[in-house]
Amino acid sequence: MYEKTLFFIDTSHSGNIMGTQRGVADIDQIANDLSSAENGIVVFTAATGKQTSQESWRWKNGAFTEALIEGLGGQADYTKDGAITINELDLYLSERVKALTNGSQTPTTSKLDTVPDFPIVLK
């Protein structure tokens, strides 16, 4: 049985995520490092390591956070079974963030292949 841990990272200037100002850390590499531990860690990031996270006064937060709130609120339940799984949320975030940002931001998800799809929201 996996201990399930989810990380949601919505940030620009991702070099600060490692506590340094000297270079820009690659958020892709950080996500891969976190998810490489064999304990069920799934990392959702707002954008690739070379992109910035977009924000808007209309959303009152970033595009990724807007999509995350919508998705967890029920929009990501593609199968309409009352459960939102990792894979459903991944698909929703990918499509919705691209739509909100006119394709300029691409969220990523990193997890080991051995981590099964599991529900994270039950309604």
SSE blueprint:
Elements: E1 5-9, H1 27-36, E2 41-45, E3 55-56, E4 61-62, H2 63-75, E5 83-85, H3 86-100, E6 108-110, E7 119-122
Parallel strand pairs: 1-2
Antiparallel strand pairs: 2-6, 3-4, 5-7
Helix pairs in contact: 2-3
Folded structure, characterized:
- The chain is an alpha+beta fold and 123 residues long.
- It has one domain.
- The chain is 31% helix and 20% strand.
- The strands form three sheets. The protein has a three-stranded mixed beta sheet with strand order 1-2-6, with helices on both faces. A two-stranded antiparallel sheet has the order 3-4.
- Strand 1, helix 1 and strand 2 form a beta-alpha-beta unit.
- The relative contact order is 0.20.
- About 10% of the residues have low confidence.
Largest sheet: 3 strands, mixed
Nearest-angstrom radius of gyration?
Answer: 14 Å
User: What percent of residues adopt helix (DSSP H or I)?
Assistant: 25-40%
Oligomerization state: single chain
Outline type:
globular
Question: What is the number of independent domains?
Answer: 1
Contiguous runs where pLDDT drops below 50 for at least 5 residues? 13-24
* Strand order within the widest beta sheet: 1-2-6
Secondary structure class reads: alpha+beta
Query: Could you tell me how far the N terminus lies from the C terminus, measured between alpha carbons in angstroms?
Result: 23 Å
The share of residues in extended strands comes to 15-25%
